[in-house]
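OP here, attaching both records as promised.
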Amino acid sequence: MLHIVACIKQVPDTKIIKMNPKTNTMDRASAPAILNPYDAHAVEEAVRLKKKYGGTVSVLTMGPPPAVKAIKKCIELGADEGYMISDRAFAGADTLATSYALTKALEKIAKHQPIDLVICGKMTIDGDTGQVGPGIARRLNIPPLTGVKKVVEINKEKGYAIVQRKLEDGYEVVKSTLPCLFTVEKEINDISFAPLPNMIKAARYQPTIWTADDLENVDRKQLGLKGSPTIVSKVWAPPKPEGGQLLEGTAQEQVNKLLSIIFEKKELFQ
C-alpha cells in the first residue's frame, strides 16, 4: 500500500489575468484562482497509481485560506486527504522558502503515515521556475525525478520506481529507489471527470490546516520573506510588436533601406 503526497498550488488563471500598468504587477483580482494545471496532472497520476497499486493519496499546499478550494478540487479528482499550511509567516516566500515550509509539513505528515512518493507538477504557471519540487527532494534527501512523462512501475516491496523522463529529443528510462519525488509533465495523463460521489465529498470536505507554530523544528528565518534570497523587482507585459514595414523601389534601393534600418536598430543585434 502506497502513501503518495501530491504538492499543489492555487494560482491565478494566466490566460485571463491582467497587468497593472501603474505598478507593473499582476492584478490577481482580475482572474479567477485555479488549481495549477501541472499539479492537476500530478494529482491525477497519484490517484491512478493508488488505483493500480493500492494506498492513499494526500495533497499538500501552502497558501491563504481561499486555497482550500484547490484542495477540494483535488478531493474531486480522487485524493483522500488534504493538508494546508497557512500563516502570515509564509508570506512573500520564494521557491527556497516555499520548499523549506513544504518540507516541514511533509515531515509532519510522514510521522502519521510514512510517505513512499511525492509528486509535484513540473512547474506553476504563475512562476515557471520548476524549482520547488527538486528543492523539496533535496531537503528530504530523496532522489528527484524531473520531467516524468510516464510511470512504468512502482514496486514498494523491492523499493524502486521506474519512469520515463522527457528529453528534448526523446525520453530516457530511469530507475530510482523509494521514497523519491516526481515532477510530472502534462502529457503524463488526461484529467478524468470527477464522479458525483467525489464532488459531494469535496463540497463537505475540510482539510487539516497548520500554522507555522504547528510544524516542528522550524527555523523562522527560513520562512516567508525573511527566508527568501530572491526578489522579483519588476514584472511587466512585453510591448506589442510593431507592424512590419514594406520596402519599395528597386532591388538596390530596398537593400539600402534595409541596411539603414538595421544600423538604426543595431543595439538589438549586440
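Record two, same layout:
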Amino acid sequence: MNIKTLKQFLALAETLNFGRASDECHISISALSRNIRHLEDELGVALFNRDNRTVVLTKEGQTFLKYARDTSRQWNLIRHELTDNSDQLSGEISLYGSVTASYSFLYELLRRFRIAYPAIEIKLRTGDPEHAIAHILDGKEDITIAARPANLPRGLAFKPIAISPLLFIAPLEQQVPNVPTHTPITTQEWATIPMILSESGVSRTRVDEWFRQHDIAPRIYAQVTGNEAIVSMVSLGFGIGVVPKIVLDNSPLVDRIKVLDVKPELEPYDIGLFTLKKSLKNPLVDAFWNLMKEGA
C-alpha cells in the first residue's frame, strides 16, 4: 500500500465512478481498477461492490474510507514539515460551498488567497449548503462555508463572515388564486397557502419554529434541496418560500420575486467558515483561516 493508491481509493470512493476517478488521478480506468484490486487483495476484503452500472462502497470500504482520509491528511502534513525549507506554503486544500456562496464570498477570498499563497492548489466543490457541516465531520473537505446551526458539533471551528436575513418571498404577480403577493395576516390565511421550503437545515428549522410559535399548521407544497430551487418555484407562482437574502440578491429571478413584510422576522443566517479544530494544525488550512482575519 502506498499514498498514491490511497488517493486513488479516495477519488473512487468520493465519485463512485471509475471514469471520473481515473481522470482525477490521471491514470487509465484499467490501471485504476487494477490498483483497487491489489489494495483489496492486500487488505483481504472487498472495498467496493461494482457491476457494469454502479459502484458502491461496502461496509468494510466505509470503514477504510475514514482511515484513508486521516492518513492522506497526515501524509500531507508530514511531507510539508519534512521537505519544505522555504517560507512559501505549498500543497492542496479542499473547499465546499453553495453556488451562491461562491459568488458572494469565495470569489474574493480565493482571489486574495491565490495572491498570498500561489503554490497552494485549491479544490472547490459546490453543492447544497445543508451538507456542508457533514462534509467537514466526515473528512470529505478541509473547509466549508454555510450557515451556523443553533448547536455547533464538538470539534468544529466556526469563523463568521456575514449576516443574511431570512426572508419570506412570493411571486411578483399572482398566478394562482391561493398564492398571494401580499403578506398573509390571519392564521387561517397562512394555513391555506402552499409553502415551498428546504428539506432540512437551518432555514427549515427556523421556519418550522416560526409556524409553531404562531400555532400555524403550514400547507407544505414542496420540500426541495437548494435555496436556488425555492426561488425558481416561487417565481413560477407555485407558492411562498423562505430563503436567505444573499440567495435572492444573487438570483437571476430576483425581478420576479416580492419580499413579504412578515413580522416577527425570522432569525437571520450567520454565515461563515467551518473546519475541524484539529485541521487548524494544518498550515494550509490555518493560512486560509487567518486570511479571513486579515481581511476583516
